[in-house]
From TrEMBL:
The keyword Flavoprotein does not apply. Residues 34-53 bind DNA. Residues 11-71 form the HTH tetR-type domain. This is TetR family transcriptional regulator.
Amino acid sequence: MTSPRQTRIQRRNSEAIFEAALEVFSAHGFRGATLDQIAEAAGLSKPNLLYYFPSKEAIHVALLSRLLATWLDPLKAMNPAGDPVAEILGYVRRKLELSRDFPRESRLFANEILQGAPRMRAVIETDLKELVADKAAVLTRWMDEGRIARLHPVHLIFSIWAMTQHYADFEVQVRAVLGEGEPDPFPEAGLYLETLFRRLLAV
């Protein structure tokens, strides 16, 4: 994998491999992707690619590891000392922005989950589970204080994931249903989700 002592050319090639792998994996999933496809997209020969990564799985794991922090940061940013509704709506907004700005990364994650998360299960069962439990405790405290409506805190988080990531994972369907002449769906989606969650959270 990449190392801190890489040359400029090695760093450039590593980034080209990651960019190519993101495109190929998000389009075809892990099973459908091949090293030949990734090498071609990166503009490298297959032997050259194998100099950096010994296997397709090694590329996939490294790519998921790079993306994980980006994926968890919006939930980590929910401030326990902030206003509950503002913090939750901020989380919804940040998740929707991720779908808008990083649709391939969202589809990569979705493909991994659909396959049973063979390369991410350990992280899901530790880091992600612990983070969700921590934020669920914050949501429960806000509910106990009467500051937001009583809801199942984990299912509230699940619903935010489902309603925001949909716009990346099912982008083709979203744009097909809205029609080619329709503007960017994200501003209206943001307004809709803010209204929906504001009413849901109201005491």
